[in-house]
Every structure is written in structure tokens, then in C-alpha cells.
Specification:
This protein has a four-stranded parallel β-sheet with strand order 2-1-3-4, sandwiched between helices. The chain has a four-stranded parallel β-sheet with strand order 6-5-7-8, with helices on both faces. The relative contact order is 0.10. With 273 residues, the chain is α/β, with parallel strands linked by helices. Strand 3, helix 3 and strand 4 form a beta-alpha-beta unit. Helices cover 44% and strands 16% of the residues.
Length: 273
């Protein structure tokens, strides 16, 4: 196995921006192994200097130059991050000056604007969407479905809950989900509770072998997790979707981000904030 290169995502706030952009770049290097560390709230010169010493020490121990992705706004803190033996990719220094020239305006350089609570109304809407998804998880609460933007339907463990929460957090979408039980699958018709909301339904399916693996982690050697049962449930769920023209996608090889983005596009949903 090749040596793993240390990677640091450094920010004066949460680190989400540096982590997201940095990881996106690193996905293009399939043969490399990385040790990732996110270092948030580097917002003083003293903290930057201490981190500089730490990263230089890691580089000396690893005998490989660390990669450092930064999204630090304050110029004096950025300047204090003088790492001798690392490749430093500074997202703000790279892009801000070019944007300032094009827009003819100086950047405000205010901390926390990307992931802060800058708009209380939008933030409240997002929290409301999250609470809606939690209250309507796994068919627990079946009233108020007319308020849902989308209702995800699929067999147990096909990825409905995390997708609903991601849709709520990232897009402000009120997403409910309904698990198809063996009783539901005995009939090709839609569950009675969902009939009035067919236009809001979106199906999730999954490869039976993957479903067997996931369910076996939860309930090993059970009928629920058996390969034959997984295959039967998936086939019947997909037949139901096709019979009622319910759009559906497979979650087998997709991340939550990809699943949510695909649903937004195919269901023609609009971001709520």
C-alpha cells in the first residue's frame, strides 16, 4: 500500500467550504491514499502559527509534503500560516482578487457568511423543513402529507431517511417518506394512504445484493435480510412504480448528494431558500 499523504482543511470558521472544495479536487486522484484532518476556527495569528508548527512537524514525520486547503478570510491570519514543507492551496487568495477586479468592488471579508445564519427567515424555513422530515419519517406521521414537496417511497433500508434529511437541510424541501411493507407489496396497487399524493411520490430502489448486505448488518440471518426476500421486495416495489408511473432511481451506487440532486432535477423541485 502506498504511503498516505496528510491533508489539512483549514478555516477560520467551520471548515465546510475548504473541506468540500478540497475533497472535490482529491477525488480526481484515484491511486493516492490520504489522511484527512479538518481544522476549524483558525481565527487568530497565534492559532495560525501553532498550526504551522504542527503541519511542518507532520510533514517531517511523514517524509511527504502535506496538502493544505485553506479558506481563511483575514489577511493577517493567512499571512501567519507560513508552512515551509507543504503545498498550500488558498481558495480566497486564488479567487477573491480576480472577482474584485471583475466586479469593481472590494470584498467585505466578513467571517461566517457562507455557513452562518445571515437570513433568519431562510434559516427558520430550513429548520421547519428538517422538523417536517423527522416527523414524517418511515410513515410515522401520515397526516399533513399535502404539505410535503415530495414523498419518498421504497423498501426498508433503501436510503429514504438520509435523503429526506439532506433535501431538508440543503434545499429546504419538505420531504416525507413511506416504507413499503411486505403487506403493501402483496398488491400491485399503491398503499391507500398514498393514493391522493401520487404526483408527489418518488421511488427509491436498490440492488438486492446491496440491500441484503445492509439488512444483514442490522438483522443477520433473518427472513427480513435474506437474499430471496430482498430480491422479491425490490422486484415488487419496482413493478409497483412502473405500474403507477412513479419515477424512481437506484440508490445502489449513488451518494446522498447525488440522490438528492437527481430527485430535485427529475421531480422539478425548486430550492426553498
Amino acid at each position: 500500500m502506498p504511503d498516505r499523504r496528510s491533508v489539512f482543511f483549514v478555516s477560520d470558521r467551520t471548515g465546510i467550504t475548504a473541506e468540500s472544495l478540497g475533497n472535490t479536487l482529491l477525488t480526481q486522484f484515484d491511486t493516492q491514499e490520504f489522511k484527512r484532518e479538518t481544522v476549524p476556527f483558525i481565527d487568530t495569528i497565534e492559532k495560525a502559527q501553532a498550526l504551522t508548527r504542527h503541519i511542518d512537524q507532520v510533514g517531517a514525520t511523514d517524509h511527504l509534503k502535506p496538502l493544505v486547503f485553506t479558506s481563511i478570510i483575514k489577511a493577517d491570519v493567512r499571512a501567519a500560516l507560513q508552512i515551509s514543507h507543504a503545498l498550500v492551496i488558498d481558495f480566497f487568495e486564488t479567487f477573491i482578487s480576480e472577482l474584485e477586479r471583475e466586479l469593481g468592488e472590494k470584498a467585505t471579508l466578513q467571517l461566517g457568511k457562507a455557513h452562518g445564519m445571515s437570513n433568519e427567515k431562510e434559516y427558520d424555513h430550513r429548520i421547519e423543513a428538517v422538523n417536517f422530515s423527522l416527523n414524517h419519517d418511515d410513515g410515522v406521521k401520515l397526516k399533513d402529507l399535502d404539505e410535503a414537496d415530495v414523498i419518498l417511497v421504497g423498501v426498508s433500508r433503501s436510503g429514504k431517511t438520509p435523503t429526506c434529511l439532506y433535501l431538508a437541510l440543503q434545499y429546504g424541501i419538505k420531504a416525507a417518506n413511506y416504507p413499503l411493507t411486505p403487506e403493501d407489496l402483496d398488491s400491485p396497487t399503491l398503499p391507500k394512504i398514498l393514493l391522493p399524493f401520487r404526483s408527489k411520490m418518488f421511488g427509491l430502489t436498490i440492488d438486492p445484493a446491496r440491500l441484503h448486505y445492509i439488512r444483514s448488518e442490522r438483522r443477520p440471518d433473518s427472513k427480513y435480510a435474506s437474499m430471496d426476500n430482498c430480491r422479491r421486495e425490490v422486484n415488487e416495489a419496482e413493478s409497483m412504480f412502473r405500474h403507477h408511473s412513479v419515477p424512481f432511481i437506484s440508490t445502489t451506487h449513488k451518494s446522498i448528494e447525488e440522490i438528492a440532486s437527481t430527485i430535485m432535477h427529475k421531480a422539478q423541485l425548486n430550492r426553498r431558500f
